[in-house]
Design brief:
By secondary structure, this protein is of the alpha/beta class. It has four domains: 165 residues, OB fold (Dihydrolipoamide Acetyltransferase, E2P) (Beta Barrel), CATH 2.40.50; 194 residues, Alpha-Beta Complex (inorganic pyrophosphatase (n-terminal core)), CATH 3.90.1640; 91 residues, no CATH class; 98 residues, Diaminopimelate Epimerase, Chain A, domain 1. The strands form four sheets. It has a five-stranded parallel β-sheet, with helices on both faces. The chain is globular, with a radius of gyration of 24 Å.
Length: 571
């Protein structure tokens, strides 16, 4: 993204720096055939002019053959053999949305091909993340001779060896960053392998699982039957917060079409329970409503509930499971807020540190990743939250683009029992007595890597506009950029010299606000859930950064400004 900076601060709790995009070049506007504002949004997302048609229309997007992915041919041959010989195929998943949807994709696709499948989803609290030989043993005892992992296994070298020693044929499918050595297996399917020549590398685990199934169905008359599984791919891809660019974007574009026409009783029930409307589901609805509910079971209980919801054919069971997930999610929200408030108190002692590390026996393991994400976003710091146990403590981390968390954990590998993940999100386990040394070493690494980096939050702004420049028509035209998510954020605008006509708190939250804004005769409704100001703290004339949303209430629709930040006007 081409940017020019305005606003800066060295305080970790300061308002974001606004990074306002440079104007779109004239030749780009002419080449893409859209209005200047839409062209600006496309340009800011690094979409080349010649890529615009395939960016907008997923049917024009071309992909490589799944057989280019390393390990796919060997994996397909082994799955074919298992199907032909009537073997039971075990699918070893993970307990988040990505892992659960990956499991469902593999099980349903292999079943369409005539295969027999069983599933194992590990328990967060007894098994933690990753492949465990004990889970593979359980699948073997239930009759499996072939086990396929999804969304896990790439860094579990010892557990993979133990699994193979059980007499099981193991296939690893994963999207996490591989170690220097690959696990023992019949095949390891991962786009991030060093020997991979596949052009796109940023799949979620469910994307890798689907690519493997594309290869399995290649040339088969039943191949069209797996396309509806893209609704599961969309759920897992968006919820796992991988980049919504390239092939992921196509997956989600197509997947949303199937999701909005879903025949799955469980997904229909979850949509109703979430207060959403079938036919109008967006990627944002997955992020803020559907994904958290599917995730909730694995965070506080067992993810088998979520897998059962996705795969059930019973409407009655679906309604029961959706209600259960909704209740679990409400408890997850309560615990997240409680831990977040506690962690922020601890971090008051670390305001000068380039990395935040908090550890406590009372942090529920299921929410520490969410809390780390909230803290990292608010303070623009790599953040590590650890749940302390007497035997093996477990941690979750979220980071910023300037700090690769996985490589930092690798520098602490001698202190860790296990670790893995992405540069921006990783998990690990370690002994209780090693936490002080781990904290000290991680802090040293952060000081070295982040020296000279401005660690105040950043807000990327697409364009400066007047309120009168935006309308419902503009909002509808911006939909060509959907689905929004990682690396394709909702468009953000800045308007300067805006008068605040009215400002009042929500009844149930004094630091959430409804506002009425006026600029050059254009009056807008706005809501502010971000800045956490009280009405008396809001100037009468502001520069405001915001996204747009359509607010639906009692059958009416009103376009609102969704405030991201504000400051006293400089105009």
């Amino acid at each position: 993204m081409n940017t020019q900076k305005s606003q800066a601060s060295n305080s970790p709790q300061s308002s974001p720096r606004w990074e306002i995009s440079a104007p779109v070049p004239e030749d780009y506007v002419s080449a893409v055939g859209y209005s200047r504002l839409i062209a600006q949004l496309l340009y800011n997302r690094n979409v080349k002019a010649e890529q615009v048609p395939s960016y907008v229309d997923p049917e024009k997007f071309t992909t490589q053959s799944p057989f280019v992915l390393p390990g796919v041919s060997d994996a397909v041959n082994r799955i074919y053999k298992a199907i032909r010989s009537g073997e039971i195929i075990g699918v070893y998943g993970d307990f988040d949305v990505d892992g659960v949807t990956s499991t469902a994709v593999l099980m349903e696709a292999i079943t369409i091909m005539g295969g027999r499948t069983i599933a194992h989803i590990p328990d967060r609290f007894t098994d933690s993340h990753g492949l465990k030989a004990s889970g593979v043993k359980s699948l073997k005892e239930r009759g499996a001779s072939l086990v396929i992992t999804c969304d896990c296994g790439i860094s579990d070298l010892a557990e993979a060896e133990k699994s193979v020693a059980l007499g099981i044929d193991l296939l690893i499918t994963d999207h996490h960053v591989p170690l220097s050595t690959l696990p023992s297996a019949v095949a390891v399917v991962n786009a991030k392998r060093k020997d991979s020549t596949y052009a796109f590398r940023e799949f979620a685990g469910v994307g890798i699982a689907y690519k493997l199934m594309q290869a399995l169905f290649h040339g088969d008359s039943r191949a069209p039957l797996i396309e509806p599984l893209l609704e599961l791919v969309a759920l897992g891809t968006v919820a796992d917060m991988v980049s919504l660019t390239g092939e992921n974007r196509q997956f989600v574009q197509k997947g949303l079409t199937f999701l909005n026409e879903t025949k799955r009783p469980g997904v229909q029930a979850l949509i109703r329970m979430s207060g959403l409307t079938l036919g109008a589901i967006t990627s944002g609805d997955i992020s803020w409503a559907l994904g958290p509910r599917i995730n909730a079971a694995g965070r506080l209980d067992h993810a088998n509930t979520s897998l059962q919801l996705l795969m059930t054919e019973s409407e009655e069971e679906a309604a029961t499971l959706a209600a259960e997930l909704d209740a679990t999610n409400m408890e997850r929200q309560r615990l997240t807020t409680e831990v977040y408030d506690n962690v922020k108190e601890h971090l008051l002692e670390q305001t000068d540190s380039p990395i935040f590390v908090a550890a406590d026996e009372d942090y529920p393991e299921g929410v520490i990743g969410l809390v780390a994400g909230k803290v990292s976003k608010e303070y623009y710091r790599p953040t590590v939250i650890i749940t302390i146990f007497d035997d093996l403590s477990r941690g979750s981390s979220r980071s910023i683009p300037e700090f690769d968390m996985v490589s930092a954990l690798d520098q602490c590998a001698d202190l860790l029992v296990s670790f893995g993940g992405h540069p921006l999100a990783a998990g690990f386990s370690l002994k209780k007595e090693d936490i002080p040394e781990f904290r000290a070493r991680l802090t040293t690494i952060a000081h070295e890597r982040l020296a000279g980096v401005n660690l105040s939050p950043r807000l990327r702004v697409d364009a400066e506009v007047s309120l009168k420049d935006l309308s419902e028509e503009t909002f509808q035209k911006m939909k060509v950029l959907e689905p929004f998510g990682q690396h394709n954020p909702q468009p953000c605008f800045v308007s300067r010299g805006v008068e605040v006509l009215e400002c009042r708190s929500f009844r149930n939250h004094e630091r959430w606000m409804n506002l009425k804004l006026l600029q050059d005769g254009a009056q807008w409704e706005a809501v502010d859930f971000r800045t956490l100001r009280c009405p008396e703290e809001v100037p009468t004339l502001i520069d405001v950064a915001y996204t747009l949303r359509m607010h639906r209430w009692n059958g009416n629709e009103v376009l609102q400004a969704y405030v991201q930040d504000m400051a006293p006007s400089t105009v």
